[in-house]
Design goal:
Elements (H helix, E strand, L loop, with lengths): L1 E3 L24 H8 L4 E5 L9 H11 L2 E6 L4 H12 L4 E5 L9 H6 L1 E2 L2 E2 L5 E2 L33 E2 L4 E3 L8 E4 L3 E2 L15 H7 L1
Parallel strand pairs: 1-2, 1-8, 2-3, 3-4, 4-7
Antiparallel strand pairs: 5-6, 8-9, 9-10, 10-11
């Protein structure tokens, strides 16, 4: 499960999957604990997840509960990024450093920490490109990428996504079916992984105008 612990980010990448901005919403610890009950394979996401004021508390909870914990970071908080790199190299977590032409510059020590023999670590090294999403160049904050629900090359996140408020969606794209809220009641259909994504297809058309 992709657990979106925050919608905030301190960068404004044009290809942002979630159209994250400096102002956003943080998930509560209670909601995070409830989300952990639904999947032992956990992706902690954002926004930039390390900006969450209780990030390390959430990491501790995830490590104590989950079979596998993965996340990506833009590496902007040097001390935190270096710690994540050490954990990844020890096999404690999976962690990717998101670095491409869209990202702001970060401490080169972080880039080095995620690199071995000048090559990225597979599974937790650098990610260089992401064609899944497009941010409107006019500055309008939308989720404007292609969505092929369940297809790794197109969908933002083809698996279950828990939003900061606890809403559980079929995937990470705007308009994806909602299965309720993990803080109250959810109903996941048996055939949920075969469902079509309901994201409005007009977004890309608008971008091309």
């Amino acid at each position: 499960m992709y657990i979106q612990i925050t919608t905030r980010c301190n960068m404004e990448c044009e290809h942002c999957c979630m159209s994250a901005t400096a102002k956003g919403e943080d998930m509560s610890i209670g909601t995070f604990k409830n989300a952990l009950e639904y999947d032992e394979y956990i992706t902690i996401g954002g926004g930039e997840p390390t900006l969450h004021p209780k990030f390390w508390e959430m990491m501790g909870l995830a490590l104590g509960f989950g079979e596998y914990v993965w996340l990506a970071t833009n590496g902007s908080i040097t001390k935190t990024a270096l710690a994540l790199a050490r954990m990844a190299k020890k096999g404690m977590i999976g962690c990717a450093l998101s670095q491409d032409v869209y990202h702001d510059e970060i401490d080169y020590a972080v880039v080095q920490a995620f690199t071995k023999d000048k090559k990225p670590y597979y599974g937790y090294g650098q990610t260089n490109e992401d064609y899944r999403e497009i941010r409107d160049v006019t500055g309008k904050e939308i989720n404007g990428g292609r969505c092929g629900f369940g297809e790794e090359d197109n969908c933002v996140c083809p698996g279950l996504v828990c939003k900061p408020n606890g809403e559980l969606r079929a995937c990470g794209c705007d308009g994806a079916p909602s299965f309720g809220n993990i803080n109250t009641q959810i109903n996941i259909p048996d055939d949920w992984d075969q469902m079509e994504c309901y994201r409005e297809q007009t977004v890309l058309a608008d971008l091309k105008r």
